[in-house]
Amino acid sequence: MLGKRLKYLRNELNKTQNEVAESIKISRANYSHFENNRNEPDSEILNRLADYFDVTTDYLLGRNNMRKSAEVKQVEKDDWVSVPVVGTIKCGPGGIIYEDIEGFTSYPKSDLDSSHEYVVLNATGDSMIGDGINAGDLALIQKEPDFVQGKIYAVIVDSEEATLKRVTRTNDSVILSPSNPKYEPRIITGLELEMFQIIGRLINIKRNYY
User: Fold this and answer.
1) Does the active-site annotation cover 27?
2) How far apart are CA 204 and CA 105, in angstroms?
3) What is the mean pLDDT of residues 75-82?
4) The whole model's pTM is what?
């Protein structure tokens, strides 16, 4: 249970194993052992993990399903922001087109940067399951035209529907990498680069449980 929950929480924050390991001051190899249930952390490291993911140690160990202790905090309506959930994103003659608006979902205002716009993309397919992104998940996208190498972005190529992929750039190409090994990376070159557009960066994933 510990490994499963660590992986879920890490993917929820869109962090690599190395980033988590560095934050709690252990080696990536040691952290990997925890996620793969090959080793168990001592009490000190378990507390560091709980603090990092902002959950209780009991939640990490699977003793209960409550992330936080039973502390009641009143949340004001103004503390939340509604973001539209979009079924399909395409590129049209006038720019980005949002189709199939499926409703709205709320996020804490403190989690969003007020200088950016946001949209929620309803994830489809299984090309990013290695990053914990499954069909039906709600992907919060921070709209921005530029990117950081290797991060996950919602992108459009040649007026197709938006897709979530890890994006890297070379001098003359853009590489869109899935995290499911049954799919090959897509390399965008030449005239295709003119039809390539970044919608924004993946901030977090909400999962629907049926």
Assistant:
1) no
2) 13
3) 67
4) 0.58
pLDDT band at 19 (very low <50, low <70, confident <90, very high): very high
184 within 8 A of 111, measured Cβ to Cβ: no
Catalytic residue among 4, 68, 73, 127: 127
Per residue in 26-39, pLDDT tens?
Answer: 998 988 888 888 88
Buried b vs exposed e over 107-123: b needs ≥16 C-beta within 10 Å?
Answer: beeeebeeeeebbbbbb
Burial-class residue 141 by CB neighbours within 10 Å (0-12, 13-18, 19+).
Answer: buried
Residue of 115, 165, 177, 182 with catalytic role: 165
Position 71 scores a pLDDT of 44
Q: Would you place residue 75 in the very low, low, confident or very high pLDDT band (cuts 50, 70, 90)? A: very low
Residue 170 three-state SS: coil
Token code pair at residue 100: 């199939």
Comparing CA positions, the residue from 81, 208, 92, 54 lying closest to residue 142 is: 81
Cα gap 122→136, rounded to integer Å:
6
Residue 98 pLDDT > 70: no
Rounded to whole angstroms, the Cα distance separating 134 from 139 reads: 10
Question: In this structure, are residues 90 and 159 in contact, taking their beta carbons and an 8 Å threshold?
Answer: yes
To the query of whether residue 69 is one of the catalytic residues in this protein, the response is no
What's the whole-number average pLDDT of the chain? 81
